[in-house]
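Thread: quick sanity check before group meeting

JM: Hey all, I'm pulling together slides for Thursday and realized we never actually wrote out the predicted structure for the chain we discussed last week. Dropping the sequence here so it's in one place. If anyone has concerns about the input, flag it before I start.
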Amino acid sequence: MVPNAFLGVIYNLIGGFTSATNFIPFRQIKRWSWEVYWIIQGFAAWIIAPTLLAWIFVPHMGAIIAQAHADPANHAITYTILFGALWGVGGLTFGLAIRYLGFALGYSIALGLCMVFGTIIPPIYHGQIMAIAHTHSGQVTLLGVLVCAIAVAVNGAAGYSKEKEIGADAAIESGEQTFAFGKGLAIAILAGLMSAFFAFALDSGAPIAAIAKSSLLAAGHNDIWQNLPILVVLLWGGFFTNIVWSAILIYQNGSIRQFIGEPGVNPMRSAPTAGDTLVDLDPLDASTYNRIAPGTLVANYLFAALAGFLWYFQFFFNSMGKARMGIYDFSSWTLLMASIIIFATLWGIFFKEWNGTSARTKLLVALGLVLLVSSTLVIGYGNYLHAVFGN
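JM (edit): ok, ran it. Output follows.
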């Protein structure tokens, strides 16, 4: 396959758009608690979508994973699942960060930190951080990390300012009934740290991609799909973490009956749920007492599944973009993160999340976005220097 950096950028932009969009279907879910629709979208995103698309585009999927598992020279399957499970904590807390901070701020802080940790954790693990710091390309990369950290601080200041300025009515109108800056910031920091393990899991899964590439070429297929099997294995770990936590919440909150129609409360609704989402009350039929209407229940499942598929497509397109970047494949992660933040910020503006705030707060939001995007460019340039000049 001939590298094409332009197509690589386009694929990552598409992935960023799907990721930033995946929380929008949650706003259409009615009378369901967070843990209920979270596990449904998770099953769609982490089990159905990656397995289905990998089996469609990659021949002999089962044999590829079995070969990677049997290879005594590496532990690709084990480490990919392990880091996937650690990332799962990030995915779980990321949803909570969006719940408490909103689209724009939640994405900016969590993904800004994800870029920082995703950049420094792999070289620390491999014992390369000091060597990197003593090269020109490494210094440029670390400068980008510093710029990103400053951007996160600026976004944090914007969130603090917003909390002081926005009223309860405005928060409800923008879908942020549970906006809480302090709690959301703490969760976003954890989400950013743990989410970075996705990049490390992709690194650990490189032997799986190598086997998949050989299988694809032997079958006469395009090797652009070589990274899809890594996603299948990685997301097993992520799903395990999330299903355990969701099951605990479902048990504690007694929300299991919501799967079959008992009403709950969706904290990400943009307005209070109307009464027409319930079955018409029939005094002679106890089954109609306080039940979600069948059409609403089906729609809830579909919206949750749609959110899951949209989420997965960020990495589906990222994997294609990485394969197209050639020697610049290092920049795919930062391109994806930058794209997500850009589109999330645009969605935040569309949903009027910053209405009711001062010009100073909006300026902080804009400045934070500029710094985040700039940091990705600097980090990408540092990696480019290393790839081309080796120092």
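AS: nice. Residues 294-324 form the longest helix (31 residues). The chain has a mean pLDDT of 79.
JM: adding both to the slides.
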